[in-house]
Structure prediction request, 228 residues.
Amino acid sequence: MKRAVVLLSGGLDSTTTLAICRADGFESYALSFRYGQRHEREVPAARKIAKSLGAKEHRIARIDLRVFAGSALTAEIEVPKARSAPEMARGIPVTYVPARNTIFLSYALAWAEVLGATDIFIGTNAIDYSGYPDCRPEFIRAFEKLANLATRAGVEEGACFQVRAPLISLSKAEIIRRGISLGVDYSLTHSCYDPTSTGLACGACDSCQLRLKGFREAGLVDPIVYAT
Prediction:
């Protein structure tokens, strides 16, 4: 089986991406991060998901983006709640973590080169998302080009790295339906930016609202528990 590195946050999108990687016949190597995020509920979620979806290996990299702050996810900045759809569609929100996907993909690229893998999967989405610049197709294409210019495997060994973003043009409802068809257990996932002290999803942040909208439009009930 061909190997692939899959970025796994523990959320809905990355979980669906891992399931797609498996369905496409890859041996998956899941990579998650403790990056100084305001909560780490997603990390144990990622562990359960990697096991559930048969990842060959799951590693958790420790980095600390709090050294730069600049985001509601890595600093004492309030997470926006109860924003309307037009508000979410306008501008880049304070939950954007500067260069996060660039950093994460760089780690994935390093592991892929060690593994002899040329495929990297990422769950970015450019339809139902929060407007992050590092979730767009042009970013994915640019990083893929960089990967083939910046590695020994690409320069000397003729490797052709591919950054696969299978969800990038899907709505949240389409993503959920695809995951259900692949046997994803969404009760294992965690998407909330600002959960309660007991781990319940807030139900009001952008991520929760987009998730709930996706389940409604898919005609399904979200299996996780919300505080509101």
User: Anything to note?
Assistant: The mean pLDDT is 95. Strands lie at 3-7, 27-34, 57-62, 119-121, 162-164. The chain has one domain: 3-191. DSSP finds eight helices and five strands in the chain.
